[in-house]
Amino acid sequence: MSSARDDMIGVTGVTPDGAEWLASAGTYKRSGCAAAVLPCGSVFDVVNVPAMFGRRMLDRLWGDGPGSGPVAVHRGRMQLFTAPGTAQRLPSLLAWEEWGWAIPPLLCHGNGDAVTVPTLTDGDGPAPGGARWLVAPDARHPWLPGPEVVLWAAVRAARAALRISIFPPADQDAKVYDVSRRR
Predict the structure, then answer these.
(1) Low-confidence ranges of the chain (pLDDT < 50)
(2) Residue among 55, 51, 52, 58 at smallest CA distance from 74
(3) How far is CA 163 from CA 59, 158, 180, in A?
(4) CA proximity to 131, closest of 141, 140, 139, 123
(5) Spacing of C-alpha 112 from chain mean position
(6) Which pLDDT does position 4 carry in this prediction?
(7) Average pLDDT in the chain
(8) Which of 34, 70, 86, 178 could bridge to 81 as Cys pair (CB 3.0-4.6 Å)?
(9) Is the dihedral of CA 49, 64, 89, 95 positive or negative?
(10) Are 34 and 26 in contact (CB under 8 A)?
(11) Are 47 and 86 spatial neighbours (Cβ–Cβ below 8 Å)?
């Protein structure tokens, strides 16, 4: 039995509804055969993370959380499409949670920024630079995680990578005596 995550991860094609959603962010019509640069801030924001950390975040989002919106890979980084406003709010949430030291650099693209998105069709494979969809847009109004959900996934991915314990490490120089045999 396949899960929703299994059905979504690895998809390269975009449905017509997903293509319409992406096109709504741009000013000009596009053919779908080439990667395009789209503005962020009105239809979506993008949180751009290193690929390995992004994979851990996706595992948390799909395994323990609500799932993700569209996700693309481009030049060794993962682009998580998020709700508008996420790029502005997420950095302050990360600072407030004091997890900046454990989370690799997250590039937040919002108002005034633009991102390169992969092709809308399978065509001849990934675009130059390896741009491809991991979770392709498939709806006219896809669910997009907000800053709190992205923060949740980033913190849990960092914790899993660090294997943080709430207990202090044992003192290696402590003298330990076995008193169980005393009467």
Answers:
(1) 1-11, 32, 123-124
(2) 51
(3) 16, 8, 32
(4) 123
(5) 20
(6) 37
(7) 81
(8) 70
(9) negative
(10) no
(11) yes
Pairwise CA distance, residues 9 & 169, whole Å: 38
Contacts of residue 182, Cβ cutoff 8 Å, sequence gap at least 6: none
pLDDT of residue 87: 97
**Tens-digit pLDDT profile for residues 160-174:** 877 655 556 666 666
Structure tokens at 52: 């390995």
134 within 8 A of 73, measured Cβ to Cβ:
yes
Adjacency order of strands within the sheet including 77-82: 107-109, 45-50, 77-82, 71-74, 132-135
Which segments of 9-101 does DSSP mark as H helices, in order? 16-23, 51-63, 86-97
Strand stretches in the chain, DSSP E: 36-39, 45-50, 71-74, 77-82, 107-109, 114-117, 132-135
pLDDT given at position 146 = 97
Q: What is the pLDDT of residue 52?
A: 93
